[in-house]
Amino acid sequence: MAKIRQLCYTCAHRSRIDRFADAGRFAAPGTAFPGSPTEKSMRIDETPQDHIRTLGGETKALYVLDDNGRYTTARTTGWEVEEIVLNQVIEDFRAKAEEARRRVLAGETSPIEYYMYRNWMDPLTLAQAMGLFRWQVRRHFRPAVFARLSETRLRAYARLFHIDVPTLKTLKEDP
């Protein structure tokens, strides 16, 4: 696999990359690879300025191509498509949090799963933030394992979720 990666980043071996593409491992022959100069990139005059609500009047930077074909930064007030997708993701996390809350109250999972979704995280993101493996975080979802977690580990979860340990243990907050 390392050799394949090395070939992908070496322009001298372009024909080998095309053979891998023919085998269905990469982009089809004749198409651009992500990040390559031939890939369609946003030009500076195409920078969206849709004034989306989720940015709250703020701006953010995008990398775009200038008139000379060089990458530069441009300010944007957002893109309507970006806002639609972001709102869908937020709604998905709300639904997952509500389902996790129901499962916590039924004794099927631990409050960690509820607070994870409430804070817009998934098991991988939570594991990275906690310095754990994903399987360890998933194990902490089991109520029996959660009941045996050390006070130190519970404090770490509570600090990450911006709550106190008693709230974490009993799920006192309203949805």
Q: Can you walk through the features of this model?
A:
Helix 3 packs antiparallel against helix 4 and helix 5 packs across helix 6 (134-140). A hairpin with a 5-residue loop joins strand 1 (60-65) and strand 2 (71-76). A two-stranded antiparallel ribbon has the order 1-2. By secondary structure, the chain is mainly α. It folds into 3 domains: 1-36, no CATH class; 41-78, no CATH class; 83-170, Orthogonal Bundle (434 Repressor (Amino-terminal Domain)). Helix content is 50%, strand content 7%.
CATH class category of the largest domain: Mainly Alpha
Number of helices: 9
> SSE order, as H and E?
HHEEHHHHHHH
Mean pLDDT: 80
- Structural classification: mainly alpha
Q: What CATH architecture of the largest domain would you give?
A: Orthogonal Bundle
Largest beta sheet: strand ordering: 1-2
Q: How many structural domains can be distinguished in the coordinates?
A: 3
Overall shape: it is elongated
Give the low-pLDDT segments. 1-33
CATH topology of the largest domain: 434 Repressor (Amino-terminal Domain)
What's the helical proportion of residues? Answer: 40-55%
Radius of gyration: 23 Å
- Biggest sheet overview: 2 strands, antiparallel
Distance between the terminal alpha carbons, to the nearest Å? 46 Å
Q: How many strands appear in the DSSP assignment?
A: 2
Strand content: 5-15%
